[in-house]
């Protein structure tokens, strides 16, 4: 005979809440809403959350030789595909991003699906997780970052014409729904990529790659120009 099912202890990832509650094991790994504050979250055991926090504190803490990180960050909200998350990490490393912030239902390392497309980049780029993307964006803005939402809207600027802020945070959203209305409202600048076929958008990881590469090139050019002015 099998014994009684042991409930799993789960903690709400919201900094404002943090409530610990119990769930049946079959709920682990699923997306749900915190019964206390209503934030959307992925059910993970408290032990896993603690492990992630320790792991996160180590990643990106020691700069790798020859790698210079730019004042460029990415806020990744509600990405459902772990492969897309991994691809974003790989692009973030290639473009010299300083930080990746994962929010909502976006998956976090360590996951084999992320590692498959990140190819180790998730070990090189500093990252953090926030249940509420708006709270994370507020923190970034307080640190001097200016958000640029990668989304096709009525006031979006063609990506070729964007004047990238000196401290840029690229904001990307769900593969289907895009960047949420709440985040769009908080972003003074929207950037769009022109489409010339029958589809109206690119895969989110591909679109992020285009935007990150352009922003990286602009910030590096600005740094070189500033160095020349100082001579």
DSSP strand count: 11
Q: Largest sheet, if any?
A: 7 strands, parallel
Assigned CATH class of the largest domain: Alpha Beta
* Low-confidence segments: none
- If you average the pLDDT, what whole number results? 86
Can you give the helix content as a percent range? 25-40%
Rg over CA atoms, rounded to whole Å, is: 19 Å
CATH H level, superfamily name of the largest domain:
SPOUT methyltransferase, trefoil knot domain
Helix and strand content put the structural class at alpha/beta
Shape: globular
SSE succession: EEEEHEHEHEHEEEHEH
Number of helices: 6
Instruction: Return the CATH topology of the largest domain.
Output: Alpha/beta knot
DSSP strand content: 15-25%
Can you name the CATH architecture of the largest domain? 3-Layer(aba) Sandwich
The rounded distance between the terminal residues' Cα atoms is 79 Å
In total, how many domains does the architecture comprise?
Answer: 2
Strand order of the largest sheet: 7-6-5-10-8-11-9
